[in-house]
Amino acid sequence: MRHKCWMTSDSDFMKIHIVGGATFEFYPNPILFIVQLYSDSYIQSSIDFLSENLVMSENDIFISNNRMFMVFGSGWNKIAISNITVMDLVTHQINTHRIDLQSCEIYGHSVSHYGDAFYMFGGGNAVKSAIIPNSINNILYKITIKESSFEIPCSEGTIKPDCTPCTEGTYFLIDHCQPCPKGTYSSYISATNVDQCYPCPAGKYSPDEGLSYCIECPIGTECPVGTFNPIYILDVISSSSIQPLAYSGQSTYITENVIKMWYSVVAFCFLMLFLAVIFNKVWMILSKVDVFANQHSQDLNVPIIYKKTNIGGLFSLLFILVAFVSIAGSIMNYTLNNITEIKALVPVMTIEDDILAKSFAIVTTFYTYGGKCISSENVDTILLPSSMICLKDISYTIEGLSYSSVTNTCEMIDSNCIVRLEFSNLELIQSIASVYIELKESRSFANNIGVNITSSSSIPNEVSNIFVIIEPPSKNYLFRGTVPTTIYFKLTPSVFTSESTEWPSFETGFHISTSENPDIGSIATQKTIYSQAYLRTLINIEKSETGMKTQRKLNNTLFVFIGGLLGSVFGLMGIFTTAMVFTEGLVGYAKKKEDRKIYLNDLYKNMEKLNYEFNRYKMKSPDRKIRPTRYQITTHYSHERVHGLN
After folding, report:
1. Counting beta carbons within 10 angstroms of the beta carbon of residue 567, is it exposed (0 to 12), middle (13 to 18) or buried (19 or more)?
2. Closest CA to 169 of 155, 157, 181
3. CATH classification of 164-236, choosing from 3.90.1570, 2.10.50, 3.30.390, 2.40.50?
4. Membrane spanning segments where (predicted)?
5. Which CATH superfamily is domain 4-155 in?
6. Residue 641 has pLDDT above 80, yes or no
7. Is the bond leading into 161 cis (omega within 30 degrees of zero)?
């Protein structure tokens, strides 16, 4: 009883240091005890050090620079001891100094250390070391010692050589006053820890370090707790999901290009017709490119002779262009749009293959994080840059997942702590798996938590991604405490098969979705933030009862494609042959009709001339029958035309 104690923390447990005091028979305690409190409520006590110089009860202590100062006290409940005992907590070296208060001695008092002095008040009095029962001390003592053998050190919150207190907006760090981080403020003088730099409340922000007050948030922006840079309302982050798209081929691309080629063919046709009409030489040259020489119609009772015609040349050019467009479109369709994708949801128990994701990443972002996040220690590694190494106070636990390797990195970007876990060849070996992330920094808090999970899908070159943002009940709260915030996800196993060599014949992966709303864990306000410790997140991963099978089949094989292509080309040739023969027939009929008209017109004119001449000669020589020598018969047609008109 009547002992004194103080606490220290380790990464795995808390320590309670107990010194001084006495038994119920007032036997003084010379032992420094340590009681360790583990996270699973297990307690273990041990003896740290034993010394007769520690036998004081009804005293008071303070800790400074790894040294314990035990100031005054009593022994055996009868003797007042006016000593200051200084113990080095690392080497356990002890020095004792006698202090004379002149008027009297005190015990059962309280001690405060500020600057380079001790301040003592309260307790009882003693005369010549003899305790006066039921006495009360109402004198405030200030003790300053500047001797070569012993000197009261500057208290935390003050700096040497004059023990100058740290001003508002700063806190004591090792041997200097450190400005409070952005997003925080401090109105304390002689602040001893960064925990005395409080986050700005909601609606305010602090853009600079070392501020003793926060600034009102501008209009049109939001300032959650701990903001150092106002967030524009349009930039507010929301949950999102990206899933593999259904295969659609490139039918739009093919259609657009084929239409462009058809436009080009039509334009070329009009150009050729225009040139053929304007320039007779162009029309005559067309016969040289005629590929339908053996398809032209023949006259009856005339030997068959293969011939090239101008109309045949024109249709040959059209056929070549149309065949080119058809072949080009067919090739593009075969190479770019020859796949049909079939998707089906099946019971997961029917999938016999082992499902694993080649790459799987969990990225947890703690927005407006209060701690450091990344380690500032020099770590000997060639795998990661120093700016991506997590603090030792950031840890993770994985259950229900199997993987070949995992990489843990951390980044601090715009006051956001980003914790990454990147897996390779991940497999879900339990129906429910979990990833537990714990941040144990003294300033581990965040106003929002975002979890982004990305998995390689079974579909090649595609990923499944989902991002969930978790917000506290209101902007006046932030995440802080021992109860983790739980986010629920569901993984759907997926299998991919393909008949095309463009993709792997077999792949597996996962499709990610959310299974239920998140459970918000411990939260704190701006004022109660340091009444709790730790920041924890639990990512729950559930295996879906259904799986997805995706199959990509070839519409046509190469043999079928070539056969169809040749068939379409010869079909086009037949169509153009028919069109050419029909056109030549129409042109021939029109020419015959025109020649007959010319023949009849010439015949009529010649008959009139003959009638006129015969009548005139008959009048001159009625008894002679002679043909006029001056008369020339008019003909505008050839013998072939006359023969054709018969």
Report:
1. exposed
2. 181
3. 2.10.50
4. 261-279, 314-336, 558-587
5. Kelch-type beta propeller (2.120.10.80)
6. no
7. yes
